Amino acid sequence: MDLVFKALADASRRDLLDRLRADNGQTLNQLCAGLPGMSRQAVSKHLAILEEANLIAAVRRGREKLHYLNPVPIHEIAERWIGKFERSRLDALSQLKKALESGDE
Amino acid sequence: MSKTSFVYVTYIRATPDAVWQAITDADFSGRYWGHSNVSDWSVGAPWEHRRLDASKKVDLVGTVIESEPPRRLVITWAFPGDIEEPAKVSRVAFDIETHKDDMVRLTVSHTELEPGGEMERGITEGWPIVLSSLKSFLETGKGLI
């Protein structure tokens, strides 16, 4: 669990997870193309930290490595502190927040 | 139309045999998944994802594609009404590897999904819940569902 929190405590790594959530199974090249401000080495290092924390599952396909967002450890953290019966109320609050902040719903 | 894929990984303190049994045994799967997985798990055999209540309603169906206990299981996966439509039949692979002597790395690869479909919505919500519950079931004897 320490590895998960450390991996998430960095805006660039959270950004990488957001990119995989939008488009799962990207290669290093695809991820780098979307992040022109970051060097290939930096992206590669961030991906290794995310993989070590099991927040990314990497799958080899031929010469390529595809990166998938793995939300299972985040779900385990939620299970630890969020009870079964609180979830629907928290979902409702979260939807309310999204609706109010987006302004067009 | 292009298809979409998801890959989920969890590490479980258990043996490969225990993980295989938890996925394939009708009684065990029912205890953490909320549905029973029913099949004889031979290649070509059908499998069903059956409700535990009196209705025994089948919510998912498919065919066993590969079966190498306790290492790898590949099945097709569809809603019962969609099984005759190839575009709506997805595929799930379970890979069970030993990790650091006393652990198992379980990888669930759900591929050939229709982007934006009901199945995609269902499984992206479902797999993290099922895998957390499976881990809890095998490590503590209690599922989370």
Summarize this entry quickly:
Chain A has 105 residues and is mainly α.
Topology at a glance:
The complex is a heterodimer of chains A (105) and B (145).
Chain A: H1 2-8, H2 11-22, H3 28-33, H4 40-52, E1 56-61, E2 64-69, H5 72-81, H6 87-102
Antiparallel strand pairs in A: 1-2
Helix pairs in contact in A: 1-4
Chain B: E1 4-12, H1 16-24, H2 26-33, E2 35-38, E3 46-51, E4 58-68, E5 72-77, E6 90-99, E7 103-113, H3 118-140
Helix pairs in contact in B: 1-2, 2-3
Overall description:
The complex is a heterodimer of chains A (105) and B (145). Chain A is mainly alpha-helical. In chain A, 61% of the residues lie in helices and 11% in strands. In chain A, a hairpin with a 2-residue loop joins strand 1 and strand 2 (64-69). Chain B has 145 residues and is of the alpha+beta class. Chain B has a single domain (4-140), classed as START domain (Alpha-D-Glucose-1,6-Bisphosphate, Chain A, domain 4). In chain B, 28% of the residues lie in helices and 39% in strands. Chain B contains three helices and seven strands. Chain B has a seven-stranded antiparallel beta sheet. In chain B, a hairpin with a 3-residue loop joins strand 4 (58-68) and strand 5. In chain B, helix 2 (26-33) crosses helix 3. The longest helix of chain B is centred in the C-terminal third of the chain and has 23 residues, at 118-140. The termini of chain B are far apart.
